[in-house]
Amino acid sequence: MVLTYFGILDDIVQVSLKAVSGLDKNNLERRPVIIGGMALQAYVQETLRKPELLRPTSDIDVMTIEPFRDFRDFDERVGEDLVSRIRKLGYQAQPSRIKHRNSYQIKVMRGQGNKARELFFINFDYPSDNVLSDPDFNEKRRREIANANITRVGDIEVMTVRIEDILSDKKDRIQRAISHLPEDHEIYLRALSDIFQEGRWEELRGVPLEKWNDRILKWQNRFDDAGQIKKPWDYILNKDLYDVCLLMQVINREPRKFNRSYYLGIKP
């Protein structure tokens, strides 16, 4: 059996983070910034030291301002470097293009081929050409990368998108999820969403998380067992609101990690 889900402190994830942290951060156009779930996990681990509140993950998502022209460009800019770093740390690595998408990845393995015992991915994911040509999207991406934070995970320093940008994306997706659900569905979560949207964030800091996280994990396992890629809106709503409540604990513990002026300046 090949293991494909890991916690942020597992060795294969630490090796992947260390490899990404070694890429060039000085060139703004090509600076690698961690986004998505791993960015959130980095903040939680750095501040709360509670890995049990985090969902295991199968990948790290990385963003740059300048997209890759093709696979050769990807390999020359980051692929060869990442593969070399990962192999020196005792793992196998292989660059590849994600089919049907404008995206590339590094496959990180303990063991190789059919003998691999662990499998993890570092994704450099880009939207369609239509989205890439949208000035608003490019402005958003440039702002997020230019204002990224350095976050410590153990002895590893990685560049992560800011908490404010994570919360802004969560806010938009929560609103979208609620619009797709019946009005009488997930009443408790709708109440939490209202509290979040209205800025009454102190009320979210004490929301119990352990059993809620277990529920989400069971849901996730069920989808994986069924091979279900597209997730239902009630699952997305649960997952994103859980993450918001988790980040409220981070902000409560270290208020300096959140800049209200920056958050309010993010365009909807």
Structure keywords:
2 domains; two-stranded antiparallel ribbon; 10 helices; 268 residues; alpha+beta; globular
Give an overview of the whole structure.
- The chain has 10 helices and 7 strands.
- The chain has 268 residues and is α+β, with helices and mostly antiparallel strands.
- The strands form 2 sheets. The protein has a 5-stranded mixed beta sheet. Strands 6-7 form a two-stranded antiparallel sheet.
- The protein is globular and about 50 Å long.
- The protein has 2 domains: 1-161; 163-268, no CATH class.
- A hairpin with a 7-residue loop joins strand 4 and strand 5.
SSE layout:
Blueprint (H helix, E strand, L loop, with lengths): L10 H11 L11 E3 H12 L11 E5 L7 H18 L3 E7 L4 E8 L7 E7 L4 H4 L2 H12 L2 E5 L2 E5 L2 H17 L7 H11 L12 H17 L6 H21 L6 H5 L4
